[in-house]
Design brief:
About 10% of the residues lie in helices and about 45% in strands. The protein contains two helices and five strands; from the N terminus they run αβββββα. The radius of gyration is 15 Å and the shape is globular.
Length: about 90
């Protein structure tokens, strides 16, 4: 009785949010905060409280680059979402 409408998983394996977060470590991500500020960089690690450590971090306010940081730590209660970046900076150039 499980499954629901659509189903289109293809492999039968269910991917949980924890699986997603483990799979994106070391990859470029966008972290959006509740304030609307975006941080883009490489996800170094995160914990169960969604505290995030990033490398090569750039801060964007209203879509404009404001600062660049080598390493950044973001407290989890400020995080609205985490998204993977489809393109790296080299791809966009």
């Amino acid at each position: 009785m499980s499954g629901g409408a659509g189903g289109g998983g293809g492999g039968g394996a269910v991917k949980t949010p924890a699986d997603f977060l483990k799979s994106i470590r070391g990859r470029p991500v966008v972290v959006k905060l509740n304030s609307g500020v975006d941080y883009r960089g490489i996800l170094a690690c995160l914990d169960g409280y969604m505290n995030i450590a990033m490398e090569q971090t750039e801060e964007y306010v209203n879509g404009q680059l404001k600062n660049k940081y080598g390493d950044a730590f973001i407290r989890g209660n400020n995080v609205l979402y985490i998204s993977t970046s489809k393109r790296t900076l080299a791809d966009g150039a």
